[in-house]
Amino acid sequence: MIKTVSIVTHKINCNDQILELTNQRVIFWEAQESLILSDLHIGKSAHFQKSGIPIPSSVLDDDLARLKQLITHFKAKNLIIVGDLFHAEYNKDLDQFKAWLSNFDELNLKLIKGNHDRLKHTIYDQFNIEVHQPSLDIDCVKFVHDSIKPTENCFTISGHLHPGVSIKGKGRQRIKLPCFQVAENQLILPAFSLFTGLNTQKNFDKCQNFCFTEDGIFEV
């Protein structure tokens, strides 16, 4: 049975562009009818399974089910994927993704290639993916997989680092949560896939960390 996800949003202003952070690891950019996300790592489960490591196939099932609900909820016409859509070589997970894409005939996929996106160019063509390297500029927003030094007139959105925070509670208890890291003229996206680690280091000076759970978004 497919779990219905709770979608909570928080709006931020980036160079006069309104972006909606969500507790489901994506940003919605209403002016461009676009969902922005990073680090799906499709193929990672099958890659580990091939090596004899028993990673459940439900990892990819859950990621794609969640993404489908987000596309439907926001009525998105574009997916802007800020790197690492894929993880490794062509494997059965990519066949599953190709079948999943058949649900969205009108959806445009724009990929800024990441360090794991190493497939042959013909495969991206088969998936009808518009590929950009090293970056993509839309209005005053620059998309690049790994963070770069931003310019005054351009807001940079990147992925790659899988940002998170470690929150200390009572009794020496700690919890790690994924987050959006936002600084002046730049933002790092959390990894979309649930099958990723968390980098709890502070990647920017004077940054805001927007953490999230299944129930909400909050700043720490």
**Alpha-carbon distance between the termini?**
34 Å
Count the helices. How many? 4
As a whole number of angstroms, the C-alpha radius of gyration is: 17 Å
The largest sheet is: 8 strands, mixed
Percent of residues in helical segments? 10-25%
Average of pLDDT: 90
The number of strands is: 15
Output the helix-strand order: EEEEHHEHEHEEEEEEEEE
Which residues sit in consecutive blocks of at least 5 with pLDDT less than 50? Answer: none
User: Outline, from the CA principal axes?
Assistant: globular
Structural class category: alpha/beta
Strand content: 25-35%
Question: What does this protein structure show overall?
Answer:
By secondary structure, this protein is of the alpha/beta class. It is built from four helices and 15 strands. Strands 8, 9, 10, 11, 12, 13, 14 and 15 form an eight-stranded mixed beta sheet that branches.
Concise account of the structure shown:
The chain has 220 residues and is of the alpha/beta class. It has four helices and 15 strands.
List the helices and strands and how they pair.
Blueprint: E1 9-14, E2 17-22, E3 27-29, E4 34-37, H1 44-50, H2 58-74, E5 78-81, H3 92-101, E6 108-112, H4 121-126, E7 129-132, E8 135-138, E9 141-144, E10 155-158, E11 164-168, E12 174-183, E13 186-188, E14 208-212, E15 217-219
List keywords for this structure.
single chain; 220 residues; alpha/beta; eight-stranded mixed β-sheet; seven-stranded mixed β-sheet; 18% helix; 32% strand; globular
